[in-house]
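Incident log, structure service

09:12 report received: a user says their structure output differs between two submissions of the same chain.
09:20 pulled the input from the user's history:
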Amino acid sequence: MSEPSRAEQLRPINGLSHVRGPTANPLIEVTIGQLLADTVALHGEREALIDTPSGTRLSWSGFMAEVDTLASALAAMGLRKGERIGIWSPNRVEWVLTQFATARLGLILVNINPAYRLSELEYALNKVGCTALITAAAFKSSDYLGMLRELAPELDHCEPNALQAARLPSLRLVVRMGEERSPGMMNFDELMALGRQRPADLAAIGASLDANDAINIQFTSGTTGSPKGATLTHRNIVNNADNVAACIRLTAQDRLCIPVPLYHCFGMVMGTLACATRGAAMVFPSEGFEPLATLQTVSAERCTALYGVPTMFVAMLDAPGFESFDLSSLRTGIMAGAPCPIEVMKRVNDQMHMNEVTIAYGMTETSPVSFQSHTDDPTEKRVATVGRIHPHVEVKVVDEHGHTLPVNQPGELLTRGYSVMLKYWDDEARTAESIDADGWMHTGDQATIDEDGYCAIVGRIKDMVIRGGENIYPREVEEFLYRHPAVQAVQCFGVPDPKYGEELAAWIILKPGASATEDEIRQFCRGQIAHYKIPRYVRFKNELPMTVTGKPQKFLMRDAMVEELKAG
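09:34 re-ran on a clean worker, output below:
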C-alpha cells in the first residue's frame, strides 16, 4: 500500500475539524547555540547579517565571533544560566547579537516592546525579575534613558553592574547603545571590548544547556489585564523557525529582508532564527518600518524574500516612486498578523514579483506559527485561509462544551504539540486558564477547518457580535466590504445597543482620492449579506489603531465609538 500524499496527510480526521501535521521528519533537538555552530560549519563564509542603517556586514563565521564575544562579556559580568536579561531597542545589530549571545549562555532573553512607556517598562522588568537590561538610548519619541533614570535615579550615583534601585529591585546591570556615556551604565562597545579580553569557556557552558530550557520571554499584549510573559524554550522556537523556513523553501542562497520588529516572534523566530536554520542572509532595512527604506534595501541587496503585515505591503505598493525600484529578485516571503485582502495579494504577486508569498497564522504562545500556506497554494486559498497545519502540531476546533466540531463549523481553535509555550512567567492561574490538562492551548480565536485541512480565522471569540441572538463574525463582514472599490482598510466591531444587545460598527479608510458615504456603504451590502450583518454605524477614518505588529486594536475602536454615541 502506497504512502498517503502530503495533501491526504493534512486532511481532517474523521470529518471533524481536527488536523495533525506530518511527523516523518523528526524535530530538531538542539539549542540555539548548537544550531548556530552547525550553520557556521556549513555556511561560514556566506553572508549572515546585512544592516543597512549601520553599514554592518557579517559572514556567518564573523557573526558567530561577535556573538561569542558578547556572550563572554555577559559571563564576565557575572550573568548565569536562567537569569533574565531584557532587550529594549528597535531593530539593530545589537538586538540580533544579544538574541544569540544570551542563548549561548542559557540566559533568558526578555523582549521589551520598543513602544513601552514608563509603567509598562517597570511592570515588565519587575514581573520577570530582569538582572540586566540592554537598551537603545532613544527611538522615535521615546527617551529610553530618560525613562530609566526616572525609574532608577540611583543610576546617577552607582558603578556599572552595581545598581540597587528601589523601584527595580532585581536590576543590577544596564548596558546602553551609542557612543555617549551615561552614569551608572556600561556602553555596548565597552562590553564587547571586555568580551575580547576575557573569553569564556562557551563549549563547557553550551554542554550544560538543554533544548527544553526556557530561553525567551515575550509579553503578549492582551486587551484586558496586565501583559503576560509567554515563556518559550530553544525547542519551541528552533523548530518553529525550521518549519517556517521549509514552508517558504528558504535556502542558503536566499536573502530575507526583515522590516518587521525583532521584539516580536515575526522578527526573531520567523526572521533571524529561520535564516539560521538554512544559512540564509538576514537583511535589515531600517530600525523601524519605513516603506522607502525597505524598497531601497530589497533592490540594492537583491533580496529574495520579504516579510510584513498587509498594511506594510500596502504602504510599499503605494509609496512614491514605487515603480523605480527593481524588485525582480523577490520570490517569496510571509504576510501575517492580520487578514490579507485579495486585491493586496494580487498586487504583491504581480507588482512585487512575490508569486510564492505565504500567509501564516499563530500566536506568541505557540512559538508562533501553527498554520501556513505553501508557495504553491492557489491565490484564493492564500487569502481566504491561513493555510494548513505545520508539522508536529495538532489542532482542533471545538464548541463551548469542548466537543470537536464537524468541518466548516466555527468554534474555538485549540493547539497542541512541541510549539506550545512552557508557561506564562510567574502566573500559574493564567497558565492553567490557557493550557488545559491535556496540553491544549486555548487560543481564543474563532476558526473553521475545511475538508482539505485549510484553516480560516473568523475572528477573536470576544470579537464575535451577538445582535438580537444572531452571531456576526466581524471578519466575514470585513472581507465583504473590502470588495467595495473605495475601501482601502476596514475593521468591524460590536457596540452595545439597548434593543438588540449589540450592533455592528464599521470603521473604514478610503483609498486615496476615493469617496463614499455611510449610506452608500450600507447600500453596497443590501441584498449581498444578511440584513443583520449590515453595519448600523459606518465611520470614515484617516487611520485605525493598530499594534506595532499590525494587529487591529478593536477595543480602542469600540471604546471610542461608545463615547461618540454617548455624546450623541
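09:41 both user submissions now match this output. Likely a transient worker issue. Closing.
09:42 reviewer note: The first strand starts at residue 18 and ends at 20. The mean pLDDT is 94.
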